[in-house]
Write a structure and sequence with these properties.
The complex is a heterodimer of chains A (234) and B (447). Chain A has 234 residues and is α/β, with parallel strands linked by helices. Chain A contains seven helices and ten strands. Chain A has one domain: Rossmann fold. In chain A, strands 6-7-8-3-9-10 form a six-stranded mixed β-sheet, sandwiched between helices. In chain A, a hairpin with a 2-residue loop joins strand 9 and strand 10. The longest helix of chain B has 44 residues. Classes of the chains: A alpha/beta (234), B alpha+beta (447).
Chain lengths: 234, 447
């Protein structure tokens, strides 16, 4: 099985005035293609920090993150932007849609940054929105949609570029139970269908049921891993 | 990100905040308009100044005089004596096209039954066109007119004819003949006798027959004398001397004649190749020792004044555009604060750093260009109003009637729009960099 992300000795220390807080402490792990991972932990456990660093949004204090042979921790801002555009999709807790743009425009946006042709990207965005069940909401703005619908747009946007890895940060945190189930089925279904790696951050045990591998994080360390069948070499 | 997408996005963002965009654009409009109007005033000033130069006649013509001419003791053997030969040798000076001696006379002309008192300028006939006499009818004098009595009349003289014996009355009544004769058709005679037109005319003075072959003079009325071949003028002068000296002894007359001839000509005209060499030629002639007069002296003085005035006007105009530039920068910075989350999201979903920068730069540039465009349109309107209603005050200051107060050529419109676009670009640069450098994560957290 193909390894996508290799994490070794990852460390993150925040300085708050004089106080130094260790958010992540010596994390080593391997993420493989086509599997669904859940970073499970309480608030403040460091799970979101880990996700941000895997996605190149935050610089680690030490250690290395190797994405298909490339060192993310060594990339410049510009390289990180290129890296995100080419390999990564994002789903956020608060959806993070562009409020001034319609659903279809929001889904189109990553394709615009990839210089896709206008007609082609419209088509792709339409198809994607149909996949997430928003065929009838193409030209609605986020403010005209429910939270569930907004999260569907956000999922469509994350998958439209067919990224190798999709990160989801508490994707259902703002949704009710019924919608949460729908959303989890949608997102995991899409990832499995395209053999994409999905990394979900959550504090919700029920969400972790959808994952192949559950990584319990506590006080910045991996406490234990459930479901991992591969050993990683150091 | 393609240019079309960036433009579409920038326009969308500008339209989203209509009032703010409008106000910022308004600042640029005022700035551009004030520069364009100021420059247009300067240009108009330049234009009317150019007209004034043309009115002064030919500025590539230099007048020189022999300072020793009026000084009897110095006149003889003076190295500055102007003879046909010495004048012809001036042509070897760099930038000199041609040169001619000048003989000025005041003579009396009969045209059919009418009379007129005119100044007569004798020149080498082949130099007439070079010397800037523009012929409006007939032809100019040329080489073949040497020795003939062919003349060219100045256009301003044609209504100066009066009836026999009525000179005083004519000038008392304003000196304008409403029914000018056609000098090119009538029989013409010329005489040095002051009383030629009256009953007291000296019968012993025989007038010369002359023949008008053309009329010269331009729209500014530079045509106040009769142009004659110089040898014809000299013939009349010799005849007059003979008449004046008929009572003298032969010896005295001869010596006077010799003295007169040794003095040469009092004046000459030197024509330069073009405007740029006038000053150098004038300097050279001054260095030789001639008294030199050229309209260029006046022109260069005026040019300096006009130049600094234009600079001042431009500077006044620039102040408001500078203020507008600050306005653009301020608007862009506010817009970035407002859109921090949006920028963060875009970065996370794959926007290049340059995409972000270009987006903001383009917005700033669009404000500049739109403002510049409207500013130019408004200045064209203001310019039209100024020219039609006319600021009589400025027109008077410029002392040229009917001249425009404000002139906006096409290049000024284009330059103004380009300039305001560049101003937009410059004022957008820092805000755009700021947007580019925003941390995506921090931007998202703000949301």
């Amino acid at each position: 099985m193909e390894r996508i992300i290799k994490v070794r000795g990852l460390k993150k220390v925040f300085s708050m005035g004089r106080e130094r807080i260790t958010a992540l402490d010596d994390i080593s792990f391997d993420f493989y293609k086509g599997r669904i991972y859940c970073l499970l932990g309480t608030s403040g456990s460091g799970k979101s920090t880990l996700l941000n660093m895997l996605a190149g949004l935050e610089k680690p204090t030490g250690g290395e993150i190797i994405f298909k042979g490339r060192h993310i921790e060594k990339m410049t801002e510009k390289e990180l932007a290129d890296f995100r555009r080419q390999h990564i999709g994002f789903v956020f807790q608060n959806y993070n849609l562009l409020g001034d743009y319609t659903a279809i425009e929001n889904v189109e946006m990553p394709l615009i940054f990839r210089n896709a042709r206008r007609r082609l990207r419209r088509q792709e965005a339409k198809k994607m929105l149909a996949c997430v069940g928003l065929k009838d909401r193409l030209y609605h703005k986020p403010s005209e949609m429910s939270g569930g619908q907004q999260q569907r747009v956000s999922i469509a946007r994350a998958f439209v570029t067919e990224p190798e890895v999709v990160f989801a940060d508490e994707p259902t945190g703002n949704l009710d139970t019924k919608t949460t189930t729908e959303m989890m089925e949608l997102i995991t279904g899409m990832a499995r269908e395209n053999d994409q790696t999905l990394i979900i951050v959550t504090h919700d045990l029920e969400i972790s049921d959808y994952a192949d591998v559950i990584i319990h994080i506590r006080d910045g360390k991996i406490e234990n891993v459930e479901g991992e069948t591969y050993e990683y070499e150091s | 990100m393609s240019n079309i997408d960036i433009i579409a996005m920038a326009l969308k963002n500008l339209f989203k905040r209509k009032l703010r965009t409008f106000l910022t654009v308004l600042g640029v409009v005022i700035g551009t308009a004030s520069i364009v109007i100021m420059v247009s005033l300067g240009l108009a000033m330049n234009e009317s100044f150019q007209k004034q130069i043309e009115m002064m006649g030919d500025i590539t013509k230099i007048e020189i005089a022999n300072p020793d001419y009026w000084n009897d003791s110095a006149a003889e053997d003076s190295p500055l004596t102007l003879t046909k030969e010495s004048i012809s040798s001036l042509k070897s000076i760099d930038g000199v096209k041609s040169a001619t001696p000048i003989a000025n006379e005041y003579l009396f002309v009969q045209c059919g039954k009418l009379y007129g008192d005119f100044s007569v300028t004798g020149i080498l006939p082949e130099t007439m066109e070079d010397m800037g006499y523009t012929v409006s009818r007939g032809r100019a004098l040329n080489k073949d007119d040497a020795g003939s009595m062919n003349v060219v009349f100045g256009s301003e003289m044609l209504n100066q004819f009066y009836k026999k014996g009525q000179r005083d009355k004519f000038y008392r009544e304003g000196g304008v003949n409403e029914d000018p004769p056609d000098v090119m058709k009538e029989k013409l005679k010329i005489s040095y006798d002051y009383e030629f037109s009256s009953r007291k005319a000296d019968k012993s003075i025989k007038p010369f027959n002359i023949n008008a072959v053309g009329i010269y003079g331009d729209e500014y009325g530079n045509g106040y004398s009769i142009i004659m071949p110089i040898d014809a003028v000299e013939k009349i002068q010799a005849e007059r001397r003979k008449h004046d000296m008929k009572d003298m002894s032969d010896n005295k007359a001869k010596s006077l004649n010799r003295q007169e001839q040794s003095k040469g000509y009092s004046q000459a005209y030197v024509k330069c190749e073009d405007m740029d060499c006038v000053e150098a030629v004038a300097e050279e002639l001054k260095a030789i020792g001639y008294e030199v007069y050229s309209a260029m002296d006046y022109v260069s003085g005026m040019k300096k004044i006009a130049g600094s005035l234009q600079l001042l006007l431009g500077a006044i105009g620039s102040v408001s555009l500078f203020v507008a530039a600050i306005g653009i920068a301020n608007t862009m910075i506010m817009s970035i604060y407002e859109r921090t989350a949006e920028i963060g999201i875009m970065k996370v979903i794959g926007a290049r750093l340059t995409d972000i920068k270009r987006m903001f730069l383009l917005e700033a540039m669009l404000i500049g260009i739109i403002g510049g465009f409207l500013g130019v349109i408004i200045s064209l309107g203001i310019s039209a109003v100024l020219n039609n209603v006319g600021l009589s005050f400025i027109a008077e200051m410029q002392s040229v009637e009917g001249a425009d107060v404000s002139v906006i050529p096409v290049w000024l419109c284009a330059a103004a729009m380009l300039f305001s676009g560049v101003i937009g670009l410059i004022s957008g640069y820092l805000p755009a960099r700021r947007a580019m450098k925003l941390s995506a994560l921090n931007a998202l957290r703000k949301n």
